[in-house]
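Structure in, sequence out. Go:
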């Protein structure tokens, strides 16, 4: 399956950045997406949107700080510009999206959980977008690639999925806009975020360098305190 995954990844949807410091955005087509593990998938209808090709980088965060939209973060474990930005709370991620919106006149935001998983799968039906098991060189997770066994990789290092999105599986967990619900049961059949006022936890997706391969599957999800931050939680932005 890996050869087919890499072949499909050669033809990416249109992508562009709205400003020199803005993330490169990939056009995601509308369609039906599946949420959850293979044993009990939940189908949703997803409208077209755009998603950042990579996780937000340290360099992009620095541009937001310089522009007055984000707070400087001391003590980053990996402060190089090409590394994924970590140590960010849910509110920090929202602040970055708001800064991009002001700068570009476009509506940036965090993706919903449904949008995130739909984009991560990129029309695949398997545990990972390339197949049913982890393969070296495809994701950054615990014992997945000897180059990055105890640290994340620079954004965009690993092979992109069939829609041109890098590191959806592994590297760092990514904030979504959804409040945390233990299951998909009773959720709406569209991809709009599930939000309750004042919810204490938000959903993070995709696994990270710190966790085992199973946590990097496309369906992986965890509820995280919205005030939490750490060296394995980052984010990427969506745009309407």
């Amino acid at each position: 399956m890996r050869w087919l995954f890499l072949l499909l990844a050669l033809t990416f949807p249109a992508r562009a950045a709205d400003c020199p410091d803005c993330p490169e955005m990939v056009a995601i087509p509308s369609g039906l997406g599946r949420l959850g593990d293979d044993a009990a998938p939940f189908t949703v209808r997803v409208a077209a949107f755009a998603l950042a090709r990579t996780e937000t980088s340290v360099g992009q965060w620095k541009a937001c700080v310089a522009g007055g939209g984000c707070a400087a973060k001391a003590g980053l474990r990996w402060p190089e510009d090409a590394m994924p930005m970590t140590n960010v709370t849910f509110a920090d991620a929202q602040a970055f999206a708001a800064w991009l919106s002001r700068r570009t006149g476009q509506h940036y935001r965090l993706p919903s959980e449904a949008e995130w998983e739909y984009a991560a799968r990129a029309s695949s039906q398997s545990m990972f977008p390339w197949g049913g098991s982890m393969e070296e060189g495809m994701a950054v997770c615990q014992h997945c690639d000897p180059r990055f066994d105890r640290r994340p990789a620079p954004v965009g290092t690993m092979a992109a999925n069939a829609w041109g999105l890098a590191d959806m599986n592994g590297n760092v967990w990514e904030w979504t806009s959804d409040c945390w619900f233990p299951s998909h049961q009773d959720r709406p059949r569209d991809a709009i975020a599930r939000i309750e006022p004042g919810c204490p936890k938000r959903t993070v997706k995709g696994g990270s360098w710190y966790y085992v391969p199973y946590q990097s599957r496309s369906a992986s999800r965890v509820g995280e305190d919205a005030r939490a931050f750490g060296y394995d939680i980052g984010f990427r932005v969506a745009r309407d």
